[in-house]
Write a structure and sequence with these properties.
Layout lengths: L1 H17 L2 H25 L4 H12 L2 H9 L3 H21 L1 H30 L10 E7 L12 H10 L3 E16 L5 E8 L3 H5 L5 E2 L14 E4 L1 H6 L11 E4 L2 E8 L12 E2 L20 E6 L5 H13 L9 E6 H6 L2 H33 L1 H9 L4 H38 L13 H25 L4 H5 L4 H39 L10 E7 L7 H14 L3 E7 L8 E7 L11 E7 L3 H5 L3 E4 L13 E5 H7 L9 E5 L13 E8 L14 E5 L11 E8 L5 H14 L5 E6 H8 L1 H35 L1 H9 L4 H30 L15 H27 L3 H4 L4
Parallel strand pairs: 3-8, 5-7, 14-19, 16-18
Antiparallel strand pairs: 1-9, 1-10, 2-3, 2-6, 2-9, 4-7, 5-8, 6-7, 11-20, 11-21, 12-20, 13-14, 13-17, 15-18, 16-19, 17-18
Length: 884
């Protein structure tokens, strides 16, 4: 025990000694002096003079500095003390070079910060597990069929009931109408709320429990009407003030009172924009829930343990094909819930993550080049330390500590910049990406940043120590011989940096070119001076016709308005789907051609500026009392009636959707006009076949529930028209909300916002890489030219012209730039194919983009070499040789 206590006391004394290094150093020096004195006394006793004896004792003792370091390295605590000295020395060194330190820390902070922010987004959207228990067992059920174009189809009411009653692959299965709108009245200004309607199994399948109150009970599904409802957490907090006593409160949707029975917890992963949950009954069911061709339900199931998705797909496919009217090649498809939530954003985020990693790589390469140049400049100092007895290990450790200090400062700045970037990203991109609620700088991103700090510290330490062969002679030659040794690693770093910049610039160029093509695409209509507004009503009968006629009359009477139209479609954003049957040819069940379809008013095309190709537009006389009519677009005319005049042909439009109330066969309609093609679904989706029907001939009255109003004005800014229109409508109908007032240019921008974000981010990364690349080339060429000052002086003294020096600098710098460009182009050709899904009318190997990239980077490289070249060519030979 006493030995143990003695060891503890010794350890404590040593720990205290770390902070008393001067005293310990003095004791070590005293011990060495004592040893030298004793040996000198022995030599004097053998006949030497005192001075000779002292010199001989020192010679026999060896290098005092080296022995001191060996003594310090005998155990851990002296090493800690030595490390503290290295840290202190490193900090002092960095303070002596504020410009160098600032640049390196800023570069590292920028690279690490961008990487941390993008990784946080990547982790939150793609990697973070869903909030639901055992979410890996949750799947969305859909179908597709090659004979129907192979597009993904949602499920119908009969499909869901068949799956629920006949499957054994899921422990439970549910359906939900994912999105529709209702009007909230009776609590201030009328508002439109986003609704969803689940079946009774829905929340149990997900494993979600209410925050307050309860969910729906089975007996509530015996009634079609909604007398109770659930509200989302967001709606409860933002619209109901987070009232803890909200259970039992009555709110009016479509003028129908309903009681709030539950508040759901936050659901950022699924249907996060839902305000109100209404029940969806399947038995009894609305008529629209009984049509097998009416595909609008999201079906979600929890897969049974031991059952694979492939086995479940086979079982559901067999069930699906037994349904009336389903094509024989229909296939059920299971999509993991997380993949369904994330959707098509996966590829875009992958590309953004690779891009920001390339920016980080360029940053590290640039920093490594700067540190290598700085280490070469310090070569005399390091060589002298080596000559005075410092071990190579000690010098490498000193370099490691300095690299760690720089990297730690850069990493700390990077985490701050990353947190700020994440906040900005959440603010500007929340409408574009899923699962961004609660986005913050993640612990995983911080861990990755710390990993980058450690890795970069090691690289920054190993690189100079490995590439610089320090010796004593180098100190007396001014380390000029080091330049030649370091030229090769310098070249490698710059070539790699340029190659990364080429990849980023090519990617940005492809996305920007694609974006420019979208901006210049022919829309088929004239969006300038057109404003849109959305109206949701509770009309489901002929009484809605006077309302909409008043809406159109009010819209055209707004000061500055020239014409107005209404439709249930949104140009460049959304269109419904219908199938077509013909009166003059056989119609194969399940193989009817599919088209875009819109209910419109007579002046809809005039309001949008769509041109008439053939026939006539609709007129006010085309109402329910007249013969049914239709207008098709030019693409439909070419595909459905090749080589024929479609005017006078008769077609039936099967336009059944959520809320429709007719189960009868659709009526035959006479085609009275052909209009030009317009991009209806999205700006970047080519026009397809489309059919337009007058809203006054909707025998189901479904379209009267909600439509968009389009007003063309004489002024350049149409939004003021929308505000005036809202004021006039609400003066006539106080409980009628008028929302989503936007100019059509804003609608177009919204439809391509993901492309816009991708182009902006990639362009920002490319510009940053170009800047870093230019700085890196300039710094390296300038430093190398500085080291060759004496060489240039000798050459010019021997008769070399200034143009020769200039050409030499450009030749060496140009070779680096050319090598980097060549490598970057080859890598870009291999990797930019992954961008193809984000491109629009632009090839992944677009020669103009590659040519522009090479030109921009070549000019950047030339400009980076220009100043060092001019400075070298203006050298005075006598000054360069140190003769004056």
């Amino acid at each position: 025990m006493s030995a143990y206590l003695q060891h503890v006391r010794s350890l404590g004394a040593r720990l205290i000694g770390v902070f008393c290094s001067r005293r310990i150093e003095d004791e070590l020096e005293t011990e060495i002096e004592s040893h030298l004195d004793m040996r000198a006394e022995l030599l004097v006793a053998r006949g030497m003079s005192p001075d000779e004896a002292l010199r001989e004792a020192k010679r026999l003792f060896g290098n005092r500095t080296h022995i001191k370091e060996e003594a310090r390295d005998q155990d851990l605590l002296p090493r800690v003390e030595s490390l503290a000295q290295d840290v202190h020395y490193g900090l002092r060194l960095l303070r002596r070079n504020p410009g160098f330190t600032t640049v390196v820390v800023l570069l590292l902070g920028l690279g690490i910060g961008l990487n941390a922010a993008m990784f946080s987004v990547f982790h939150q959207v793609l990697l973070a597990p869903l909030q639901f228990p055992q979410a890996d067992r949750l799947y969305i059920v859909s179908s597709h069929a090659r004979t129907l174009g192979d597009a993904r189809r949602a499920m119908s009411g009969p499909d869901f009931r068949d799956f629920r009653d006949q499957n054994s692959a899921f422990t439970s299965i549910a359906a939900v109408i994912p999105s529709f709108a209702e009007v909230w009245t009776g609590d201030g200004e009328p508002r439109i709320v986003n609704c969803a309607a689940p079946t009774r199994e829905f929340f149990d399948v997900l494993g979600v429990h209410p925050l307050l109150g309860r969910t729906f009970v089975p007996t509530e599904f015996n009634d079609l009407h909604n007398t109770t409802l659930l509200v989302s957490y967001k709606f409860w907090k933002n619209q109901l003030g987070g009232d803890p006593h909200v259970i039992g409160r009555i709110i009016h949707l479509e003028d129908v009172p309903s009681v709030i029975v539950g508040v759901m917890p936050p659901m950022p992963d699924l249907y996060s924009d839902v305000d109100v949950w209404l029940k969806l009954t399947t038995e009894p069911a609305w008529d629209f829930m009984n049509w097998r061709a009416n595909k609008f339900l999201d079906v979600v199931g929890r897969l049974r343990a031991g059952m694979t998705p492939q086995q479940a797909e086979q079982q559901l496919t067999a069930i699906l094909r037994r349904g009336d009217g389903e094509p024989a090649d229909a296939l059920a498809q299971l999509t993991p819930l997380q993949e369904f939530v994330v959707g098509s954003i996966t590829r875009q985020l992958d590309i953004m993550m690779v891009s920001v990693a390339l920016v980080l790589l360029v940053t590290l390469l640039n920093t490594a080049a700067m540190l290598l140049a700085h280490s070469i400049k310090r070569a005399p100092e390091l060589a002298v330390r080596l000559g005075l007895g410092a071990s190579r290990a000690r010098i490498r450790r000193q370099l490691l500590v300095e690299g760690l200090l720089l990297s730690a400062a850069g990493g700390g700045l990077g985490i701050i910049l990353g947190a700020l970037t994440v906040a900005a990203f959440r603010h500007f991109a929340v409408v574009s990406l899923p699962r961004l609620d609660g986005l913050a700088l993640s612990g995983a991103a911080i861990a990755v940043s710390l990993g980058v700090v450690v890795l970069s510290s090691i690289i920054f330490a190993v690189l100079p120590g490995t590439l610089l062969k320090l010796d004593l002679a180098a100190a007396f030659r001014g380390a000029r011989t080091q330049t030649g040794r370091a030229q090769r690693p310098f070249a490698g770093l710059i070539v790699a940096e340029i190659a990364c910049a080429v990849v980023l610039t090519v990617g940005a160029g492809l996305l920007v070119r694609s974006f420019m093509r979208i901006q210049s695409v022919r829309l088929g209509y004239q969006p300038e001076r057109v404003v849109s507004a959305y109206l949701r009503t509770n009309y489901d009968n002929p009484e809605g016709y006077p309302f909409w006629r008043n809406v159109l009359s009010t819209a055209t009477s707004v000061p500055g308005a020239t014409t107005a139209g209404i439709s249930d479609c949104v140009p460049s954003a959304r269109a419904n789907t219908a199938t077509i049957r013909f009166a003059d040819r056989p119609n194969l069940p399940g193989r009817e051609p599919s088209t875009e379809a819109c209910w419109i008013s007579a002046d809809y095309f005039k309001a949008l500026g769509v041109s008439l190709v053939h026939g006539r537009f609709f007129a006010d006389r085309d109402d329910a009392d007249r013969a049914p009519v239709a207008i098709i677009n030019a693409d439909a005319a070419r595909r459905l009636f090749p080589g024929q005049d479609p005017i006078g042909k008769r077609i039936a439009v099967s336009y059944r959707s959520l809320g429709s109330r007719s189960t009868g066969e659709p009526r035959m309609r006479e085609i009275v006009g052909v209009v030009s093609d317009l991009r209806q679904r999205a700006v970047d989706v080519p026009p397809g076949p489309a059919v337009y029907i007058p809203y006054t001939q909707d025998e189901t009255y479904h379209v009267l529930n909600s439509m968009n109003v389009y007003i063309r004005g004489a002024a350049a800014d149409p939004v003021s028209l929308g505000q005036s229109f809202r004021a006039r409508i609400q003066s006539l109908y106080p409980n009628q909300p008028v929302e989503r007032i936007r100019g059509m240019r804003a609608v177009i921008a919204k439809s391509i916002e993901r492309r816009t974000y991708a182009a902006l981010l990639m362009t920002g990364f490319a510009v940053l890489a170009l800047l870093l690349c230019g700085l890196g080339i300039y710094g390296v060429v300038s430093y190398v030219m500085q080291q060759r000052t004496r060489e240039f002086g000798i050459r010019m003294a021997l008769g070399a012209q200034r143009s020769d020096v200039l050409a030499d600098v450009f030749q060496r710098g140009g070779m680096l730039v050319a090598a980097g460009l060549g490598l970057g182009v080859v890598v870009s050709l291999l990797v930019t194919r992954e961008l193809s899904q984000l491109l629009f009318e632009t090839g992944a190997a677009d020669p103009e983009v590659y040519g522009a990239t090479v030109l921009v980077l070549a000019v950047t490289g030339i400009l980076a070499c220009l100043l060092p070249a001019i400075r070298a060519s203006k050298l005075d030979p006598r000054t360069a040789l140190g003769l004056q």
